[in-house]
Amino acid sequence: MMPFSDEDLQSPVSSIIKSKIAPMLARDGGAIQLLQIKDAKVYIQLQGACVGCSASGSTLKYIVEKELKAAIHPELEIVNVPQGMENRLEEF
Question: What are the residues whose beta carbons fall under 8 Å from the beta carbon of 42, sequence distance 6 or more?
């Protein structure tokens, strides 16, 4: 059970994405956007060079998930929302 509300998670998740994860992805031409946090699921979207990149699955697991889980809570769930699906988060 997650000890934080979605509102509690917003600031630290956003901060880690901006300060740690985005700069790592930017080095390879990628980008990341935090879309929403709902029921302790962090909905993000990998953008830029990450779209269609064969390594984006690894990026999600070994950079995004690892950083957020280590810094905030090991049970956070990270969901990468494909381009064009931003208004259909309930499907993920």
Answer: 9, 13, 34, 68, 76, 77, 78, 79
Spatial CA neighbour of 21 closest among 62, 57, 49: 62
Q: What is the pTM of this model?
A: 0.91
78 DSSP β-pair partners: 42
Task: Give all domains of the chain, ordered by start, each with its CATH number.
Answer: 6-81 (3.30.300.130)
Closest CA to 26 of 76, 63, 68, 61: 63
71: pLDDT strictly greater than 80: yes
Q: In the prediction, which pLDDT does 77 show? A: 94
